[in-house]
Amino acid sequence: MVSVPVTVPWSPEHQLQRLQVTRKLLETEEQAAFPLGGASPRYLYLASNQSNKWGHPRGYRIQIRSFAGEPLPQSSSMERAISWGRHQLAVTQRREEGPSSASIYNLNDPWTPTVDPTDFINNETVAGQDLVAWVTAGFLHIPHAEDVPNTVTVGNGVGFFLRPYNFFDQDPSLHSADSIYFRGDQDTGDCEVNPLACLPKAAGCAPDLPAFSQGSLSHS
């Protein structure tokens, strides 16, 4: 997102700033690595060479919603064992020799780690390649009095979203059985327009339970 100066039509001597979407293709792994605390795109998505019916590249957007912060300073001699924490997101070529960003053996010798994920970022091209997105997600929770007797989950969510971005031609939930879309000129009682209009009055899979009673309680 960039701000573009635009002259105010009704007041030519003034300008206003209009937000404008700009697209930039990231060519290398260095460009696609976003360090902790640094600037990152408002929208970042992995696009394919195929397009939807609107002509937009089919892809998936990566939306990070939580980050814990720097686990160890880079000056620490143990930091290389968890150097994935340097980046909130890094996109690299997929390699068979780099299946994960860490190793259980890093615990045995964190000063000389078996796997150092920063080695994956060596400025190779990412355009037109099979890619891996290394996303660091987490949160910091310092115990406080309101954790007693149980810790609430509100505000403690962690993770990221991998969202379809121009991947489909329309909202795929329209094809769900519990979602109906029709126009004002259509007959909502028509089965082809509204599949729910033709459902039986009672669900066919509901069990047929006989009436019973016990004391003052009864059911039918």
Please render the helix and strand layout as text.
Elements: E1 2-8, E2 11-20, E3 33-35, E4 45-51, E5 57-64, E6 87-93, E7 131-135, E8 160-165, E9 212-214, E10 217-219
Antiparallel strand pairs: 1-2, 3-6, 4-5, 5-8, 6-7, 9-10
Task: Give an overview in words.
The structure is a single chain. The strands form four sheets. This protein has a three-stranded antiparallel β-sheet, with no helix packed on it. A three-stranded antiparallel β-sheet has the order 4-5-8, with no helix packed on it. It has strands at residues 2-8, 11-20, 33-35, 45-51, 57-64, 87-93, 131-135, 160-165, 212-214, 217-219. The protein has no helices and ten strands.
* Beta-strand percent range: 25-35%
Could you give the count of β-strands?
Answer: 10
Shape by Cα distribution: extended
Overall structural class, as computed from helix and strand content, comes to: mainly beta
Largest sheet, described in full? 3 strands, antiparallel
Work out the helix count. 0
Helix coverage percent of residues? under 10%
Terminal residue distance: 62 Å
Radius of gyration: 27 Å
The helix/strand series, from N terminus to C terminus, equals EEEEEEEEEE
- Runs in which pLDDT lies below 50 for 5 or more consecutive residues are none
Largest beta sheet: strand ordering? 3-6-7
Overall average pLDDT = 85
